[in-house]
Design goal:
mainly alpha, Tetracycline Repressor, domain 2, about 80% helix
């Protein structure tokens, strides 16, 4: 019998995280069983419990996976951006990308916000996302608007989250571009007003 490698354990964890997102996407809620998630991932329920302990921790691991994919998408978008305005456009665009508007990802984010109301660990993880978004926005707004950057970043961050949630809950909305364009228009108005 081959010993388990760290790489194979990591692969199984990722498979379980992705299976969790798909199961939540199909159910539209956290009302899914670890058994169903494990079956989709091709592993035993016991292994899922061994890795994560319970369904809440499995879901939090799945959200960390979603957030790491989002972070990679942001980093990729920022690679080609030359100016602070280009970087802001790239950052906002990453929030409304096709990969972030997949039904299962939308369902995961909606359930994540709900879980953050009752789970301290989910609340902390959500706070990490908010701080990173705020920090990225402030970094690229500062050359354009100076000391008004934190307040504008706070409003733009709230608009990103609000329009994502609003757009994502419309059954016909599986395209984030209209919401992205609203945020970009508001950003331009904020920059113009700050001059």
């Amino acid at each position: 019998m081959k010993p388990r490698t760290i790489e194979s354990e990591q692969t199984r964890r990722i498979q379980l995280a992705e299976a969790t997102i798909h199961e939540i996407g199909e159910a539209g809620s956290l009302n899914v069983t670890v058994g169903k998630i494990a079956k989709r991932a091709g592993v035993s329920s016991g292994l899922a419990f061994h890795y994560f302990g319970d369904k809440t921790h499995l879901f939090l691991a799945a959200m960390r996976h979603v957030m790491s994919l989002y972070s990679a998408e942001v980093r990729g978008a920022l690679l080609t951006a030359q100016t602070p305005r280009d970087r802001l456009t790239a950052l906002i665009g990453a929030n409304f990308s096709t990969s972030n508007f997949r039904p299962e990802v939308i369902s995961a984010w909606l359930n994540f916000y709900v879980l953050a109301q009752s789970s301290e660990e989910a609340r902390r993880l959500l706070a990490v996302y908010h701080r990173r978004l705020q920090s990225n926005l402030v970094h690229d707004l500062r050359p354009l608007v100076g000391d008004k950057a934190p307040a504008i970043a706070d409003r733009i961050g709230g608009l990103i989250d609000g329009l994502y949630l609003r757009s994502a809950t419309l059954s016909s909305a599986r395209d984030g571009r209209p919401a992205m364009n609203q945020v970009l228009a508001t950003l331009e108005a904020e920059i113009e007003h700050a001059k």
